[in-house]
Design brief:
Elements (H helix, E strand, L loop, with lengths): L2 E6 L5 E2 L2 E2 L1 E6 L9 E6 L2 E10 L1 H14 L6 E12 L1 H16 L3 E5 L3 H10 L6 E2 L2 H5 L14
Length: 153
Amino acid sequence: MSIEHAQIPPNEGNYGGQAGGDVAVRQNPAPLTRHLRVHDERGHTVLEFHGEIDLAVADEIAPLLDRATGDPGARVVFDLSGVEFFDCSGLRLLVRARQRVLDRGGELHLVCTHALTLRVLRVTGLARLLPRRTVDEVVGRSGPPSSRTPPSR
């Protein structure tokens, strides 16, 4: 099992008897909240959102998103496939996370299959984040593209 290390600031609480420092996080950790699970998938940080993402939830998970989107060159996947409701607070989180990732030279991908959430993304113009159907498509788990030869000119 691969291990990922996360830097926990000293003021973030007591982890394993130490305040702050490096903490080992398993490949498939338990959810950070009932609305967010973060894990590493082939060099991408996958943030799986669940349930209703509204104002109360946004305030709860915003610091976790800031931590997950703060590394230079981060490759982040927002997986909204488990979301049942997504309001303007969720949109605000998405826009902020996107800006943080891009400002640090990273890339952000969006996985969304929920029709109402996709509609909200289209109406607001955020659909340009290129929603994909699955996390597998984003992280390339299905293998390299077929050996297609580019068309000759």
